[in-house]
Protein backbone atom coordinates (compact mmCIF):
# COMPACT_ATOMS: atom_id res chain seq x y z
CA UNK A 1 0.00 0.00 0.00
CA UNK A 2 1.18 3.52 -0.77
CA UNK A 3 2.26 5.48 2.32
CA UNK A 4 0.84 9.00 2.14
CA UNK A 5 1.69 10.24 5.64
CA UNK A 6 3.81 9.49 8.67
CA UNK A 7 0.73 9.40 10.87
CA UNK A 8 0.15 6.64 13.40
CA UNK A 9 -3.43 5.45 13.86
CA UNK A 10 -5.14 4.01 16.92
CA UNK A 11 -8.40 2.12 16.44
CA UNK A 12 -10.88 3.16 19.15
CA UNK A 13 -13.34 0.40 19.88
CA UNK A 14 -16.72 1.69 21.10
CA UNK A 15 -19.36 0.35 23.44
CA UNK A 16 -23.09 0.10 22.74
CA UNK A 17 -23.65 3.54 24.29
CA UNK A 18 -21.11 5.18 21.97
CA UNK A 19 -18.38 5.59 24.58
CA UNK A 20 -14.79 4.48 24.04
CA UNK A 21 -13.46 1.22 25.42
CA UNK A 22 -10.57 1.74 27.78
CA UNK A 23 -7.95 -0.10 25.71
CA UNK A 24 -8.26 2.42 22.85
CA UNK A 25 -7.63 5.32 25.22
CA UNK A 26 -4.68 3.46 26.73
CA UNK A 27 -3.09 3.08 23.29
CA UNK A 28 -3.12 6.84 22.79
CA UNK A 29 -0.26 7.03 25.30
CA UNK A 30 2.36 4.98 23.40
CA UNK A 31 0.78 6.15 20.14
CA UNK A 32 1.63 9.79 20.88
CA UNK A 33 5.25 8.97 21.60
CA UNK A 34 5.60 6.68 18.58
CA UNK A 35 3.96 9.18 16.22
CA UNK A 36 6.44 11.82 17.37
CA UNK A 37 9.38 9.53 16.67
CA UNK A 38 7.98 8.77 13.21
CA UNK A 39 7.51 12.48 12.51
CA UNK A 40 3.75 12.27 12.12
CA UNK A 41 0.50 12.92 13.96
CA UNK A 42 -1.54 10.66 16.21
CA UNK A 43 -4.91 9.90 14.63
CA UNK A 44 -7.76 8.01 16.30
CA UNK A 45 -10.21 5.99 14.19
CA UNK A 46 -13.74 5.77 15.59
CA UNK A 47 -16.40 3.62 13.94
CA UNK A 48 -19.85 3.26 15.48
CA UNK A 49 -23.26 4.82 15.96
CA UNK A 50 -23.83 7.98 18.04
CA UNK A 51 -20.18 8.05 19.13
CA UNK A 52 -20.03 11.60 20.54
CA UNK A 53 -18.88 10.31 24.00
CA UNK A 54 -15.98 8.47 22.36
CA UNK A 55 -14.99 11.52 20.32
CA UNK A 56 -14.93 13.71 23.44
CA UNK A 57 -12.87 11.19 25.41
CA UNK A 58 -10.33 10.66 22.62
CA UNK A 59 -9.96 14.40 22.03
CA UNK A 60 -9.33 14.97 25.74
CA UNK A 61 -6.66 12.26 25.87
CA UNK A 62 -4.25 13.64 23.31
CA UNK A 63 -5.21 12.66 19.75
CA UNK A 64 -4.17 15.14 17.04
CA UNK A 65 -6.83 13.96 14.60
CA UNK A 66 -10.02 11.92 14.92
CA UNK A 67 -11.45 10.21 11.85
CA UNK A 68 -15.11 9.34 12.50
CA UNK A 69 -17.39 6.99 10.58
CA UNK A 70 -20.95 6.76 11.91
CA UNK A 71 -23.98 4.76 10.82
CA UNK A 72 -26.64 2.38 12.07
CA UNK A 73 -24.81 -0.54 10.47
CA UNK A 74 -21.92 0.07 12.89
CA UNK A 75 -24.02 -0.09 16.09
CA UNK A 76 -22.63 -3.57 16.76
CA UNK A 77 -19.24 -4.78 15.58
CA UNK A 78 -19.19 -6.87 12.42
CA UNK A 79 -16.08 -8.14 10.67
CA UNK A 80 -17.34 -7.30 7.17
CA UNK A 81 -18.41 -3.70 7.84
CA UNK A 82 -15.49 -2.62 10.01
CA UNK A 83 -12.89 -4.23 7.74
CA UNK A 84 -14.37 -2.54 4.67
CA UNK A 85 -14.38 0.87 6.37
CA UNK A 86 -10.79 0.68 7.59
CA UNK A 87 -9.60 -0.62 4.21
CA UNK A 88 -11.13 2.45 2.51
CA UNK A 89 -9.69 4.84 5.12
CA UNK A 90 -6.20 3.37 4.93
CA UNK A 91 -6.14 3.53 1.15
CA UNK A 92 -7.28 7.17 1.25
CA UNK A 93 -4.96 8.50 3.97
CA UNK A 94 -2.04 6.03 3.82
CA UNK A 95 -0.84 5.93 7.47
CA UNK A 96 2.44 4.27 8.29
CA UNK A 97 1.31 2.36 11.41
CA UNK A 98 -1.85 1.30 13.25
CA UNK A 99 -2.49 0.03 16.79
CA UNK A 100 -5.52 -2.10 17.65
CA UNK A 101 -6.55 -3.31 21.11
CA UNK A 102 -6.23 -7.08 21.53
CA UNK A 103 -9.85 -7.52 22.55
CA UNK A 104 -12.09 -10.22 21.08
CA UNK A 105 -13.10 -7.81 18.32
CA UNK A 106 -9.59 -6.48 17.80
CA UNK A 107 -8.16 -9.97 17.44
CA UNK A 108 -10.78 -10.62 14.78
CA UNK A 109 -10.34 -7.31 12.97
CA UNK A 110 -6.53 -7.11 12.85
CA UNK A 111 -5.88 -10.20 10.69
CA UNK A 112 -8.67 -9.29 8.27
CA UNK A 113 -7.24 -5.80 7.73
CA UNK A 114 -3.72 -7.19 7.30
CA UNK A 115 -4.93 -9.64 4.67
CA UNK A 116 -6.89 -6.98 2.76
CA UNK A 117 -3.92 -4.60 2.76
CA UNK A 118 -1.32 -7.34 2.14
CA UNK A 119 0.79 -6.35 5.12
CA UNK A 120 2.00 -8.00 8.31
CA UNK A 121 0.39 -8.18 11.74
CA UNK A 122 2.02 -8.72 15.13
CA UNK A 123 -0.54 -10.00 17.63
CA UNK A 124 -0.90 -9.64 21.41
CA UNK A 125 1.95 -7.16 21.93
CA UNK A 126 3.02 -6.20 25.42
CA UNK A 127 5.63 -3.56 24.51
CA UNK A 128 6.10 -1.04 21.67
CA UNK A 129 8.91 1.14 20.39
CA UNK A 130 10.18 2.80 17.21
CA UNK A 131 13.49 2.21 15.44
CA UNK A 132 14.14 5.87 14.69
CA UNK A 133 16.61 5.13 11.87
CA UNK A 134 14.12 3.10 9.81
CA UNK A 135 10.76 4.17 11.26
CA UNK A 136 9.92 0.53 11.84
CA UNK A 137 7.77 -0.31 14.84
CA UNK A 138 9.44 -2.73 17.26
CA UNK A 139 6.56 -4.95 18.35
CA UNK A 140 7.35 -7.09 21.40
CA UNK A 141 5.16 -10.06 22.32
CA UNK A 142 5.40 -13.34 24.25
CA UNK A 143 6.57 -16.29 22.13
CA UNK A 144 7.00 -20.05 22.54
CA UNK A 145 4.23 -20.33 25.08
CA UNK A 146 5.38 -17.23 26.90
CA UNK A 147 8.84 -18.62 27.62
CA UNK A 148 10.57 -15.72 25.91
CA UNK A 149 9.75 -12.28 24.51
CA UNK A 150 10.19 -11.73 20.76
CA UNK A 151 10.63 -8.34 19.08
CA UNK A 152 9.19 -8.30 15.56
CA UNK A 153 9.51 -5.73 12.76
CA UNK A 154 7.75 -5.30 9.44
CA UNK A 155 10.31 -3.50 7.22
CA UNK A 156 8.87 -4.12 3.76
CA UNK A 157 5.13 -3.50 3.95
CA UNK A 158 2.85 -0.71 5.16
CA UNK A 159 0.91 0.06 7.19
CA UNK A 160 2.54 -1.72 10.10
CA UNK A 161 -0.21 -3.39 12.14
CA UNK A 162 -0.30 -4.81 15.64
CA UNK A 163 -2.78 -5.73 18.33
CA UNK A 164 -1.84 -4.67 21.87
CA UNK A 165 -3.05 -6.21 25.09
CA UNK A 166 -5.40 -4.19 27.30
CA UNK A 167 -3.86 -2.97 30.55
CA UNK A 168 -0.28 -2.84 29.26
CA UNK A 169 -0.19 0.98 29.06
CA UNK A 170 -1.55 3.65 31.36
CA UNK A 171 -4.24 5.93 30.00
CA UNK A 172 -2.80 9.40 29.23
CA UNK A 173 -3.84 12.31 31.40
CA UNK A 174 -6.65 14.51 30.15
CA UNK A 175 -5.65 17.75 28.49
CA UNK A 176 -7.27 20.64 26.66
CA UNK A 177 -9.09 19.32 23.61
CA UNK A 178 -7.45 20.30 20.32
CA UNK A 179 -8.07 17.39 17.95
CA UNK A 180 -9.09 17.95 14.35
CA UNK A 181 -12.28 15.98 13.70
CA UNK A 182 -12.67 14.49 10.22
CA UNK A 183 -16.00 12.87 9.38
CA UNK A 184 -16.11 10.34 6.56
CA UNK A 185 -19.43 9.41 4.96
CA UNK A 186 -18.93 5.68 4.40
CA UNK A 187 -21.84 3.25 4.41
CA UNK A 188 -21.69 -0.49 3.83
CA UNK A 189 -24.70 -2.13 2.10
CA UNK A 190 -26.55 -4.65 4.25
CA UNK A 191 -25.97 -7.25 1.55
CA UNK A 192 -22.20 -6.98 2.19
CA UNK A 193 -22.56 -7.73 5.92
CA UNK A 194 -22.87 -11.48 6.06
CA UNK A 195 -23.51 -11.86 9.77
CA UNK A 196 -25.97 -10.43 12.23
CA UNK A 197 -26.31 -10.55 16.01
CA UNK A 198 -29.43 -12.44 17.04
CA UNK A 199 -28.90 -12.32 20.78
CA UNK A 200 -26.27 -11.18 23.29
CA UNK A 201 -25.74 -13.56 26.21
CA UNK A 202 -23.67 -11.92 28.91
CA UNK A 203 -21.61 -14.00 31.30
CA UNK A 204 -22.28 -12.57 34.76
CA UNK A 205 -18.74 -13.08 36.05
CA UNK A 206 -17.24 -11.38 33.00
CA UNK A 207 -19.57 -8.41 33.46
CA UNK A 208 -18.87 -7.88 37.16
CA UNK A 209 -15.12 -8.58 37.24
CA UNK A 210 -13.13 -5.66 35.87
CA UNK A 211 -9.54 -6.79 36.25
CA UNK A 212 -8.23 -4.39 33.63
CA UNK A 213 -9.72 -1.37 35.41
CA UNK A 214 -8.96 -2.50 38.97
CA UNK A 215 -6.68 -0.37 41.16
CA UNK A 216 -5.93 -3.23 43.58
CA UNK A 217 -5.86 -6.95 42.73
CA UNK A 218 -5.40 -9.87 45.11
CA UNK A 219 -4.57 -13.03 43.14
CA UNK A 220 -4.33 -16.68 44.10
CA UNK A 221 -2.39 -19.47 42.43
CA UNK A 222 -1.66 -23.14 42.80
CA UNK A 223 -0.73 -22.53 46.43
CA UNK A 224 -4.37 -21.98 47.45
CA UNK A 225 -4.77 -25.79 47.01
CA UNK A 226 -8.46 -25.72 46.09
CA UNK A 227 -11.58 -23.59 45.62
CA UNK A 228 -11.94 -23.14 49.38
CA UNK A 229 -8.41 -21.69 49.42
CA UNK A 230 -9.72 -18.53 47.80
CA UNK A 231 -11.67 -17.66 50.96
CA UNK A 232 -8.79 -15.76 52.66
CA UNK A 233 -7.95 -14.10 49.34
CA UNK A 234 -11.53 -12.89 48.95
CA UNK A 235 -11.52 -11.70 52.57
CA UNK A 236 -8.39 -9.60 51.99
CA UNK A 237 -9.81 -8.28 48.72
CA UNK A 238 -13.00 -7.22 50.49
CA UNK A 239 -11.10 -5.27 53.14
CA UNK A 240 -8.97 -3.54 50.51
CA UNK A 241 -11.82 -2.90 48.07
CA UNK A 242 -9.87 -5.02 45.60
CA UNK A 243 -10.69 -7.36 42.73
CA UNK A 244 -9.89 -11.08 42.98
CA UNK A 245 -7.50 -12.46 40.35
CA UNK A 246 -6.01 -15.87 39.72
CA UNK A 247 -3.22 -17.66 37.89
CA UNK A 248 -3.87 -20.01 35.00
CA UNK A 249 -3.10 -23.01 37.22
CA UNK A 250 -5.95 -22.11 39.58
CA UNK A 251 -8.37 -21.51 36.70
CA UNK A 252 -7.40 -24.71 34.85
CA UNK A 253 -7.94 -26.66 38.04
CA UNK A 254 -11.51 -25.35 38.17
CA UNK A 255 -11.03 -23.53 41.48
CA UNK A 256 -12.21 -20.18 40.10
CA UNK A 257 -13.76 -18.98 36.83
CA UNK A 258 -11.78 -17.78 33.78
CA UNK A 259 -12.78 -14.08 34.01
CA UNK A 260 -10.49 -13.90 37.08
CA UNK A 261 -7.42 -15.11 35.15
CA UNK A 262 -4.36 -12.86 34.93
CA UNK A 263 -1.60 -13.68 32.48
CA UNK A 264 -0.77 -14.42 28.88
CA UNK A 265 -3.99 -16.38 28.30
CA UNK A 266 -6.02 -14.19 30.66
CA UNK A 267 -6.14 -10.45 31.30
CA UNK A 268 -3.18 -8.08 31.24
CA UNK A 269 -3.45 -5.76 34.23
CA UNK A 270 -1.66 -2.71 35.58
CA UNK A 271 -3.11 -1.90 39.02
CA UNK A 272 -1.55 0.35 41.63
CA UNK A 273 -1.17 -2.69 43.90
CA UNK A 274 -0.94 -6.38 42.96
CA UNK A 275 -0.80 -9.00 45.72
CA UNK A 276 0.24 -12.45 44.49
CA UNK A 277 -0.64 -15.25 46.92
CA UNK A 278 0.68 -18.75 46.33
CA UNK A 279 1.74 -17.84 42.78
CA UNK A 280 5.17 -19.14 41.74
CA UNK A 281 5.69 -16.54 39.02
CA UNK A 282 5.74 -18.39 35.70
CA UNK A 283 6.62 -16.07 32.81
CA UNK A 284 3.10 -16.49 31.39
CA UNK A 285 1.69 -14.92 34.57
CA UNK A 286 4.37 -12.26 34.85
CA UNK A 287 3.57 -11.10 31.29
CA UNK A 288 0.10 -10.20 32.49
CA UNK A 289 0.92 -8.20 35.65
CA UNK A 290 4.47 -6.86 35.31
CA UNK A 291 3.23 -3.30 34.69
CA UNK A 292 1.68 -3.11 38.18
CA UNK A 293 2.94 -0.14 40.19
CA UNK A 294 3.63 -2.15 43.36
CA UNK A 295 3.80 -5.95 43.65
CA UNK A 296 3.59 -7.86 46.95
CA UNK A 297 4.36 -11.59 46.81
CA UNK A 298 3.39 -14.15 49.45
CA UNK A 299 4.87 -17.63 48.94
CA UNK A 300 6.35 -20.44 51.01
CA UNK A 301 9.20 -20.95 48.54
CA UNK A 302 11.89 -18.28 49.03
CA UNK A 303 13.25 -19.09 45.55
CA UNK A 304 9.94 -18.58 43.75
CA UNK A 305 10.43 -16.45 40.58
CA UNK A 306 7.62 -14.11 41.71
CA UNK A 307 10.00 -12.60 44.26
CA UNK A 308 12.20 -11.45 41.37
CA UNK A 309 9.57 -8.94 40.26
CA UNK A 310 8.07 -8.16 43.68
CA UNK A 311 8.64 -4.86 45.45
CA UNK A 312 7.85 -6.55 48.78
CA UNK A 313 7.98 -10.24 49.60
CA UNK A 314 6.63 -12.34 52.45
CA UNK A 315 8.02 -15.86 52.76
CA UNK A 316 5.35 -17.86 54.51
CA UNK A 317 2.16 -19.90 54.31
CA UNK A 318 -0.58 -17.76 52.76
CA UNK A 319 -3.14 -19.41 55.05
CA UNK A 320 -1.24 -18.04 58.04
CA UNK A 321 -0.19 -14.71 56.54
CA UNK A 322 -3.44 -13.55 54.93
CA UNK A 323 -5.73 -13.74 58.00
CA UNK A 324 -3.22 -11.70 60.03
CA UNK A 325 -2.75 -9.20 57.21
CA UNK A 326 -6.50 -8.87 56.71
CA UNK A 327 -7.14 -8.31 60.40
CA UNK A 328 -4.40 -5.70 60.70
CA UNK A 329 -5.75 -3.78 57.70
CA UNK A 330 -9.25 -4.01 59.16
CA UNK A 331 -8.00 -2.54 62.46
CA UNK A 332 -6.12 0.23 60.67
CA UNK A 333 -9.19 1.20 58.69
CA UNK A 334 -11.33 1.17 61.81
UniProtKB/TrEMBL annotation:
<dbReference type="Pfam" id="PF01012">
    <property type="entry name" value="ETF"/>
</dbReference>
<dbReference type="Pfam" id="PF00766">
    <property type="entry name" value="ETF_alpha"/>
</dbReference>
<dbReference type="InterPro" id="IPR014730">
    <property type="entry name" value="ETF_a/b_N"/>
</dbReference>
<dbReference type="InterPro" id="IPR014731">
    <property type="entry name" value="ETF_asu_C"/>
</dbReference>
<protein>
    <submittedName>
        <fullName>Electron transfer flavoprotein subunit alpha/FixB family protein</fullName>
    </submittedName>
</protein>
<dbReference type="InterPro" id="IPR033947">
    <property type="entry name" value="ETF_alpha_N"/>
</dbReference>
<feature type="binding site">
    <location>
        <begin position="247"/>
        <end position="248"/>
    </location>
    <ligand>
        <name>FAD</name>
    </ligand>
</feature>
<dbReference type="GO" id="GO:0050660">
    <property type="term" value="F:flavin adenine dinucleotide binding"/>
</dbReference>
<comment type="similarity">
    <text>Belongs to the ETF alpha-subunit/FixB family.</text>
</comment>
<feature type="binding site">
    <location>
        <begin position="261"/>
        <end position="265"/>
    </location>
    <ligand>
        <name>FAD</name>
    </ligand>
</feature>
<feature type="binding site">
    <location>
        <position position="222"/>
    </location>
    <ligand>
        <name>FAD</name>
    </ligand>
</feature>
<feature type="binding site">
    <location>
        <begin position="278"/>
        <end position="285"/>
    </location>
    <ligand>
        <name>FAD</name>
    </ligand>
</feature>
<keyword id="KW-0285">Flavoprotein</keyword>
<feature type="binding site">
    <location>
        <position position="299"/>
    </location>
    <ligand>
        <name>FAD</name>
    </ligand>
</feature>
<feature type="domain" description="Electron transfer flavoprotein alpha/beta-subunit N-terminal">
    <location>
        <begin position="8"/>
        <end position="197"/>
    </location>
</feature>
<dbReference type="GO" id="GO:0009055">
    <property type="term" value="F:electron transfer activity"/>
</dbReference>
<keyword id="KW-0274">FAD</keyword>
<keyword id="KW-0249">Electron transport</keyword>
<dbReference type="InterPro" id="IPR014729">
    <property type="entry name" value="Rossmann-like_a/b/a_fold"/>
</dbReference>
<dbReference type="InterPro" id="IPR018206">
    <property type="entry name" value="ETF_asu_C_CS"/>
</dbReference>
<dbReference type="GO" id="GO:0033539">
    <property type="term" value="P:fatty acid beta-oxidation using acyl-CoA dehydrogenase"/>
</dbReference>
<dbReference type="InterPro" id="IPR029035">
    <property type="entry name" value="DHS-like_NAD/FAD-binding_dom"/>
</dbReference>
<dbReference type="InterPro" id="IPR001308">
    <property type="entry name" value="ETF_a/FixB"/>
</dbReference>
<keyword id="KW-0813">Transport</keyword>
Amino acid sequence: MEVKSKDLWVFIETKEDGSAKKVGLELLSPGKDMAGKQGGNLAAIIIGNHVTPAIEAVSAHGADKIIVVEGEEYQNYSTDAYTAVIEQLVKKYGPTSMLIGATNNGRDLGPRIACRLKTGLTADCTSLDIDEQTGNVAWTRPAFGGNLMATIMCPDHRPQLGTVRPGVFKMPDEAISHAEIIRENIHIPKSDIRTQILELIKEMDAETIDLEGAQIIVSGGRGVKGPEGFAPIKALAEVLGATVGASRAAVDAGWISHPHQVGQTGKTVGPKLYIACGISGAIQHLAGMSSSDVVIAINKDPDAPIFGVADYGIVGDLFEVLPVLTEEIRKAKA
